[in-house]
């Protein structure tokens, strides 16, 4: 049941693991002049909380989705020039900071994936539960749609994408069916793809793991938006932008993203000295300290209140030295 009073719109997005994100970043954001980056502004839930919790801090927030920027601009207007919102892909962070004349930042937050608004708006084509044009671009001003990927990619590439980004065991079966169907008529809407996946999968596979189209949709979304390639560049860039003592927190929603974040943090926290040195010279010492043991999960209470928090994995790290490598 919704707690929303009758006549009020449903809240569109409840920020995930909000308290814990704020706590992780807090020690770095108390000083006047601190800059915190929200790399995934979305509807501005985390950003609004950052601005109200850390009154001395200035926010720079990015999103590649112009609709999200429009809505958040209104939401964050009361904070005036403490908030700077920028239309950018998050691996452009160093260039954005450069343009703003900001040399280093004290905090960075990533809340990965799609927003509730993107999922809920049928016209964006992210949801497999409703029929919609197969678009899935987070930035609808550029790039190619999921329908174009499905209709034009060679079968081998589609199989690779479904396996790598969707961890789909039946990639080959699904792609064979897609290729047969697209020759008859190109794909344009999600319902036909969902139906095709249902008919292509063995009955036993339908009984487990929720909607059988989920993995294919995830894979197409990651491909359309280049999500993993962008993240692979963005997390090291964000770590590089942190001042010593600065902190980064990343919320991931699927294992491929979380693995990537884990690898970047683990590499930063590792001692890279050749074995056998009696004293580890400074350039080989870690530049990150991990702030979370493994990935932290949302509580059961939070999941009960906000089912979209369920897959969340949170990792945090602190920059502890300049890069001497
Ligand atoms: C889960 S939502 C963020 C929700 C936000 N924390 C809030 O509380 O409202 C993720 C947002 O990140 C944006 N996004 C995803 N990948 C991006 C990228 N590579 N560059 C910039 N923005 C991205 C999406 O457009 C979406 O609006």
UniProtKB/TrEMBL annotation:
S-adenosyl-L-methionine binds at residues 44-46, 63, 90, 111, 118. One of its GO terms (cellular component) is cytoplasm. Its main location: cytoplasm. One of its GO terms (molecular function) is rRNA (cytosine-N4-)-methyltransferase activity. Its EC number is 2.1.1.199. One of its GO terms (biological process) is rRNA base methylation. Specifically methylates the N4 position of cytidine in position 1402 (C1402) of 16S rRNA. This is Ribosomal RNA small subunit methyltransferase H. The lineage of its organism: Bacteria, Bacillati, Actinomycetota, Actinomycetes, Kitasatosporales.
